[in-house]
User: Fold these one by one.
Assistant:
Number 1:
Amino acid sequence: MPTTGYRTLHFSQANSAGAGQGDVPALLRAVAATIEDLGPVTVADLILHNEITADGDWPSITVYYNVAESE
């Protein structure tokens, strides 16, 4: 099967460990800022994960995205 040069990139992001680590609204705002900083991208998928630590829930989000092609 020939390749088209199309690839999906990803990053994962979480709040800092400790107080506030479970603050999902803050996590969503941080992820939105990171996506904006990437420039013109198309988000393909977002997955919310949750790890349970001694400090409580510690959610993270993995974002799958594609860089917009130049015209």
Note: The mean pLDDT is 91.
Number 2:
Amino acid sequence: METAAAGATPARPGGLPRDDSLPFLAATCAVGCAAAAITVTSHARLLFDHLWLSGALWAGAAGIGFAVGWGLFRLLGFQRRTLTLRLAVISLALAFAAVWGANSISSHIFMNAWARYEAELGGPGQCLAGTPYGKDRASVVTWVATGDDRMEIWPGGPIPKGTPKGYKYPVLKLTHAVNGGTRPLAPADDMSRDLLRSYGCR
């Protein structure tokens, strides 16, 4: 009768080494990559505008995650380690952290139109902050029709003393106001361009 050498890795029937942890870790990488891809495509509006393309990206991310995870953890010797509760919890926590990080980064890159206006023009520290076009006073109107990237900023707040009776602040019109877009907001006409310049913008 054969006996196992001291310190040898327990074997499965047939003499194969135990690899309980490797499939789980590779699958966790696949799920984490797919979940990260879902968050990115949702912020980038691909999820809503190009569902089939999004599905292909999710499948590709899952496949790459599984392949990379399998190869990396196999290289590190996890094919000879038994899956334990501690290892499972750590791997799931790392996958969750990766998805959370992808969500945070993509939410800053692919912002909605109002968030981009606040970050680029009307928010604290920006050129329109504290003006009738600042985020605390203005109202925003956007168009959701396909191919229409217009955005109007309706000014608010009191009219300064000495202003001619009946005077109204002009409406600021911007383009590139696409939810999930990455192009900076830009004036849609000459009046809006002059208005931005008068406040020292761009």
Note: The two ends are 84 Å apart (CA to CA).
